[in-house]
Amino acid sequence: MDRLYIPVLYGSVRANRASFPVATYVHQLLAARPDVETGLFDPRDLPFGNLVEREWEMNPPPPEVTEFVHEMARADGFVVVTPEYNYGLPGALKNMLDHLYDEWNRKPFAMVTAGGLSGGLRASDQLRQVVSGVGAFVIPGHVPVQFVQESFGENGPRSHPELWAERFGRLFRELEWYARALRPARLALSAAGAP
Fold first, then answer.
1. Cβ–Cβ < 8 Å for 14, 46
2. Dmax over Cα atoms in the chain, in whole Å?
3. All domains of the chain, ordered by start, with CATH?
4. Whole-model pTM?
């Protein structure tokens, strides 16, 4: 079976990012899946800044942007890991998504959100709209991480790692199903000259 390429996109640039251990844990679990290739993309590593020029308007784009565009274009789907800020998604994540367009089209996104009592559900609501706006879609499954600072530490879940692994495993299986189902249709459109 051909391997899928499913990057993990992290959503925050703040200091002391409490949800970053969730992103590294998700990346580790995804990397251990035999039919998946992955990478972890952090907006701190991308020179986007405020959205003044989208990537195709940059002349020339910085090498980091060119590489990011290439990686997103070859992806079969994405896992977004993001905290919730003030009932919404972080500006850094919105900015990262807004800098590209075609590279997201017709691809499935899985969401992992982190926060307090709600586990980031309001960020999830906003992200569904944004993903739809860039021509992609969010799969039905979702993993909210409640009380993220108590739930995760630098080495992953603070308790019940087997339950967390199963939750994420279900999310990955669903995402992989959509990615495999959509890839042939997306490649056929590309061969026909559609963006």
1. no
2. 50
3. 4-191 (3.40.50.360)
4. 0.93
